[in-house]
Amino acid sequence: MKKLRALQREYFHALRVGWFLALRQIKRSGKGTTALIIFIMVLTFLNLVVVSGLLLGLITGSFVQFRDAYSGEVIITAAEGMDHIENSPALVNFLESHPKVEAFSPRYGAGVTVLGTLTRLPEKNERPNQLSMRVMGIDVEREEVVTGFSRFLKYGEHLAPGEEGYMLIGANLLKKYSAFADANIPGLDLLDDVDVGSRVRMTLSRKDGGIVRKDFIIKGIVKSKVDEISTRMFISNQELRRLLPINKEQLQEIAVRTDLEYAPRLVEEIKTFMGSYAARVQTSDEAIPSFLRDIETTFGVLGNALSSIGVVVASITVFIVIFINAVTKRKFIGIMKGIGVSPRAIELSYVFQAFFYGFFGCLIGVLLTFGFLEPYFAANPIDFPFSDGILVVTPTGAALRVAILMAVTLFAGYLPAKLIVRRNTLDAILGR
């Protein structure tokens, strides 16, 4: 027991002396050198957080856009092997009466063929100016509440509620506006010479072999980084219902707006309500294609790999600074050992110096990240072709990176001090 208390007193004394020596060395060191080391630690922290955060933000931005522009927090679609949601009218009533459902947008849909040239027939061996796509019948007012659909209108005018004979078309279906128009991709068909005001002919094939045709005027062109908007056509839901041969009351999609944290529970409630009726009910995260999840994982690994380089650089920098500091003060270290200052106290003094550099570097880095960078990228996302990139950083993730950086910094401060302090005291005093 006495030995334990003596050991505790020895460690406590070493901590006090080490802290005193560290403060004196920091105060007497050049302000420029101290500021430069802290600046390097700030950059290292930002490299740890920002690089991986931006890489993840590329994919996370597309997830957010997918939820805000198309799916809502919950998306209900037809079950596998079905072309509509069974018992749709009852499901709509259920959603209308649910207290946690803020809004929802019922959508009809069908696969159609669209002919873009009505004034002439194609010549021999000439491919017709047509393509197959999906047309969606939307309730304009409800869709606006759920997704803010009008913000995707780039050219022309928006559909009026209940308006017929007009359609909106996705930009990636038109040769004039598509991002893939200059790419020679086999099997990629785009409508040529189609713009706002053009007349196109939509053909819907029945299962019984019958065909429904109707001409529409392009009223507007919609463009989004969400494919479900840029690669579809949109008409009034009443008009599409009349064109559908069967199941006129059965919907193909329902996007539901609710609290994000409540979404998984709402999914279970809808599944319970649907019972044996066929429908696929998912949260927006579950509806994200799996290949995007794989990209997210890959970007996370890549960001961590790049960030690790910064950690190595920072540790080497601290090691060199502490090592040079200790080498230049070998005689002083030898004198302190000669007058009775314990080697542990001297080692701790350099560890405290490393802690000082790491702590203030991380503190400034955290303030910059959460006080400036994260709000800035949220307000000004990076414009990438497939998403609006944001900075993804969480307090937990930042705390983990602070812990990693501090651990590496403390070790980088301890190691050179250990190497110098363990040298012979007399040799250190004489400078040998």
What report would you give on this structure?
It is a single chain. This protein folds into two domains: 2-65 and 292-430, no CATH class; 79-278, no CATH class. Helix content is 53%, strand content 17%. It contains 13 helices and twelve strands. The protein has helices at residues 2-28, 31-71, 88-97, 140-147, 227-230, 237-243, 263-274, 284-287, 290-328, 330-338, 343-379, 395-421, 425-430, and strands spanning 74-77, 103-115, 130-138, 153-156, 166-170, 199-205, 211-222, 232-236, 253-257, 280-283, 382-383, 388-389. A six-stranded mixed beta barrel has the order 2-3-8-5-7-6. A two-stranded antiparallel sheet has the order 11-12. A hairpin with a 5-residue loop joins strand 6 and strand 7 (211-222).
